[in-house]
Amino acid sequence: MSETSGAGRLLTPALTMTGRCVRLSRRDVDAVVTSMMLPVMLMLVFVYFFGGAINTGTEYVNYVVPGILVLCSAFGSSGTAVRVSEDMKGGIIDRFRSLDVGGTSILAGHVVASTVRNVFSTALVLSVGLVIGFRPSASAAGWLAAAGILLAFLVALSWLSAAVGLMARTPEAASGFTFFMMFLPYPSSAFVPVETMPSWLHGFADHQPVTPLIESLRGLLHDEPVGTAPWTALAWCGAILAVAVALSGVLFRVRTR
């Protein structure tokens, strides 16, 4: 009985905070449109401007769309840092604390709302990709596995973004994380094979979290062998999530003393 009531005390405020964050997103139309349209525009630029000059051994649109899906997820999730920082600066956190709403519930609301927003953004990018020639050949199991890995990345990165938002003293400083996450997919296999990069860049490109994630999505969506890439990607997601949850808990206590 006590365990059930304890879970309810945590779940109910988290759902309330999620509803609040979703409503705020609906009011911030410019940010929502930007998070949806920027990855689409980048995909169109790479496919139609650069695709003819890049040799990947396959149709470039089939190569690049998995990378754009990850770019979309990274860009959208990183916006959580700005929203958390705005809450900290605006004083609303003190009001929530006076209502006995815990830090976990507040941050969970931001994370879930971010995940919901990014699911729609990802669906839009995938839909446009299909229109311009992306032709996946995945089985139902492949689609489910790809969706699960991408969802794990969304949740992990959203929690990390929440921790960054707690560290940043201003929303403007938090927005720098958005730039970092926009840049991270470039030194990976998102747009060109790692083998075509300078040799000094191979180590970073091969061993950063985005590359195994993209390789997993690309292999699963095209029904190709993926080796250990999915497990490596999930290990990265698990490590990022564990660090982010622990760090955000500590930072929230420090910032709300």
UniProtKB/TrEMBL annotation:
Subcellular localization(s) per the UniProt record: Cell membrane; Membrane
Main location: membrane
Keyword terms: Antibiotic resistance, Cell membrane, Membrane, Transmembrane, Transmembrane helix, Transport
UniProt key word Transmembrane helix: yes
Transmembrane segments annotated in the record for this chain: 29-51, 63-85, 106-134, 140-162, 174-194, 233-252
Highest taxon in the source lineage: Bacteria
ABC transmembrane type-2 domain residues: 30-255
InterPro entries: ABC2_TM, ABC2_TM_bact-type, ABC_2_transport, Nod_factor_ABC_transporter
Name assigned to this protein: Transport permease protein
Origin species: Streptomyces kurssanovii
Upper taxonomic lineage: Bacteria, Bacillati, Actinomycetota, Actinomycetes, Kitasatosporales
